[in-house]
Amino acid sequence: MRNNEPDSTPRARIPADVDTPDKIVYGLTARQLAVLAVAGVIGYGVFKAVGHLLPAPVLIAVLTPVAGAAIVLALGRRDGLSMDMWLLAAIRHTRRPRHLAPAAGGKTIPAPGWAPEVPAATPPAVLRLPAKAIAESGIIDAGSHAVALVACTTVNINLRTGDEQAALLGAYGRWLNSLNGPVQVVISAQRVDLSSHAQRIADGAETIGNQALAEAARDYAGFLDDLAARRDPLWRTVTIAVTAAGEKGRDTEVSRRAEHAASALSSLGIQTAVLDGGRVTSVLTTAVDPYTPTDASWPRSRPDAVITRGTS
Asked: Which of 104, 165, 186, 257 could be stapled to 242 by a disulfide with Cβ–Cβ 3.0 to 4.6 Å?
């Protein structure tokens, strides 16, 4: 007999602090204990060196800033980072060159005569990107490892029954458990350029011989123009980056992992595709300039590709 009771929604408990360091003693991590230990050694050294020369109030006034700085470094946080890591990042940022320029072979070339003069104190440095090259197969050479990209669609799990939701979560969990290397899932929202799409439809309507179909195409183009004017339509993209390290065979391994991810996720009803070199270049081009409305659906020429044209 079929059970007519509504399916129970599956619930999965996912810890949100998987990256939280382990607590060693008194709720403090090893990093916090190290900071406090160094501060304690410094304070003890100051006490042994000048403790017999200074009165107690003066000695307390000298050691109090040291203790306060240690507590702030050990326990303070800002922008999701511990205070010591945040200060280290700030120091690196202030010492980093402000002007970066791409250079072949890692060597900068002198600026042309018409370029504005750059102060000698801040010469341009070499711009070093994470990706060194993009193969025709779509494999990204990131130096120490290779990366392949898999484009995916999404699944509306709220429209499924409880049993179907449990099956989808189980299949997704099996894919996660099968991973043996770093994987990044990037979800981004981009603007949809409806105006250019509407213009293409309106231009195509002029070539339609049937008057009724041409009028329907013009109405649809007008609807898209009105929608673009009144709303800010967005579309969501999901890209999975799989990696493989090693000196030999990593390109083959990262291709195998990308195919495995595409096959495993397609069983969830997701449309997947391992991106080739042109589409990987398109995705990266759009990612480095997110504020410019561009379309990543058409491939670009790879940076080292030779572009030729036929002659008539």
From this structure: 257
